[in-house]
UniProtKB/TrEMBL annotation:
<protein>
    <recommendedName>
        <fullName>Flagellar P-ring protein</fullName>
    </recommendedName>
</protein>
<dbReference type="GO" id="GO:0005198">
    <property type="term" value="F:structural molecule activity"/>
</dbReference>
<dbReference type="GO" id="GO:0071973">
    <property type="term" value="P:bacterial-type flagellum-dependent cell motility"/>
</dbReference>
<comment type="subunit">
    <text>The basal body constitutes a major portion of the flagellar organelle and consists of four rings (L,P,S, and M) mounted on a central rod.</text>
</comment>
<dbReference type="GO" id="GO:0030288">
    <property type="term" value="C:outer membrane-bounded periplasmic space"/>
</dbReference>
<dbReference type="Pfam" id="PF02119">
    <property type="entry name" value="FlgI"/>
</dbReference>
<dbReference type="GO" id="GO:0009428">
    <property type="term" value="C:bacterial-type flagellum basal body, distal rod, P ring"/>
</dbReference>
<keyword id="KW-0574">Periplasm</keyword>
<keyword id="KW-0975">Bacterial flagellum</keyword>
<dbReference type="InterPro" id="IPR001782">
    <property type="entry name" value="Flag_FlgI"/>
</dbReference>
<feature type="signal peptide">
    <location>
        <begin position="1"/>
        <end position="20"/>
    </location>
</feature>
<comment type="similarity">
    <text>Belongs to the FlgI family.</text>
</comment>
<keyword id="KW-0966">Cell projection</keyword>
<keyword id="KW-0969">Cilium</keyword>
<comment type="function">
    <text>Assembles around the rod to form the L-ring and probably protects the motor/basal body from shearing forces during rotation.</text>
</comment>
<keyword id="KW-0282">Flagellum</keyword>
<keyword id="KW-0732">Signal</keyword>
């Protein structure tokens, strides 16, 4: 079982206890590993969104938009070279997409559209035909369609209302795959599984579970852990790679993870893993509060004098330190550690500081990750 402690500003002493994915029988191998070489591919392209209601790029401030618009019109047989354009319903955008593995020609994928000029909104616009290229420079898909945005940007003479991001959106099923990425599982006899969360013990358990199954199914042991991240499989000759991966993917194993404490200073969140231990320590924590108040005084000159009005600074500085409790924190288990921290009555920022100090003292028997 994996227990997590999440401490936030809204819930200082909230203890979240969650079971390992997959329930008491463990996690499925298909959920904690990926097949090496079977991956997505990133595509990118430059295009134009047209049909905006005066919220497009200012062509004078975005010359690349004007150049792209003229090039598109030239390809359509419209001569606009040397003619200044003043359209405000066009926006230059970057189009990105993720090409899934083994996707065939003619399939459709979603694309993301983001403005790169000074357009204020892409709402209601239409993406013009845009080739999408991969890292090798080859065109793998072509995108076009109505842009859907979740943000709204409305402004008047004295007020502006902005909700979400109106300069980015999506085109669902907006790209048509024109080229298939090379690669197939046919004819591959050796497969490599990569763990999503690398761990030596988990890799060994995966190999043992697969070997126990293949001994019953095919009468041979075919799996061997290479390191904490990969498990090598020698596929039996009598079964295809797809069916073989489907069968072993349903096997379950009990996952393990290193002792780790993750701290997010921006949100005040602390996540403590179940295997975290703290050597017995005594600690006290007090808060020092400094207050600086400015109360400037305006001094007026006497009547009929040649003096001028002046402002004299008046600064008030005070320092207060709250009394801190001293407590014994013995992290023999997660519940004891949480109880010890809560006994002192700490805020999330205080808990983060204490964990960093305990780590420096060598009493935190876990990896501390500060984000």
């Amino acid at each position: 079982m994996t227990r997590l402690l999440t401490i936030t500003v809204a819930a200082l002493s909230l203890l979240l206890t969650a079971g390992a994915p997959g329930g008491p029988d463990g996690s499925r191998i298909k959920d904690i590993t990926t097949v090496q070489g079977v991956r997505d591919n990133q595509l990118i392209g430059y295009g134009l969104v047209i049909g905006l209601q005066g919220t497009g790029d200012t062509l004078r401030n975005a010359p690349f938009t004007e150049q792209a618009l003229k090039s598109m019109l030239d390809r359509m047989g419209v001569a606009v070279r040397g003619v200044p354009l003043r359209a405000q319903n066009v926006a230059a955008v970057t189009v990105t997409a993720t090409l899934p593995p083994f996707v065939g020609v003619g399939s459709r994928i979603d694309v993301a559209v983001s403005s790169i000029g000074d357009a204020t909104s892409l709402r209601g616009g239409t993406l013009v035909v845009t080739p999408l290229t991969g890292g090798d420079g080859q065109v793998y898909a072509v995108a076009q369609g109505q842009v859907q945005t979740s943000g709204v940007n409305v402004q008047g003479q004295a007020a502006t209302l902005t909700e979400g991001v109106a300069t980015a959106g999506r085109v669902p099923n907006g790209a048509l795959v024109e080229r298939k990425v090379p690669g197939t599982l046919v004819g591959i006899d050796k497969l490599v599984l990569e763990l999503n969360n690398p761990d030596y013990r988990t890799a060994a358990k995966i190999a043992d579970a697969i070997n126990a199954y293949t001994e019953r199914r095919w009468g041979s042991r075919i799996a061997a852990e290479r390191d904490l991240r990969t498990v090598v499989l020698n596929k039996p000759k009598s079964v295809g790679a797809t069916r073989f991966l489907a069968e072993i993917g349903q096997l379950t194993v009990e996952t393990d993870a290193p002792a780790r404490v993750v701290v997010d200073q921006a949100t005040g969140t602390v996540v403590i893993g179940a295997n975290v231990r703290v050597s017995t320590v005594a600690l006290a924590h007090g808060n020092l509060t400094l207050r600086v108040a400015e109360s400037p005084t305006v001094v007026q000159p006497d009547p009929f004098s040649y003096g001028v009005t002046a402002v004299e600074p008046n600064t008030f500085v005070s320092a207060e330190e709250a009394g801190g409790k001293i407590a014994i924190v013995d992290g023999t288990d997660l519940q004891t550690l949480v109880h010890g921290l809560n006994t002192i009555g700490l805020k999330p920022s205080d808990i983060i500081s204490i964990l960093q100090t305990i780590k420096t003292a060598g009493a935190l028997q876990a990896e501390l990750i500060v984000q």
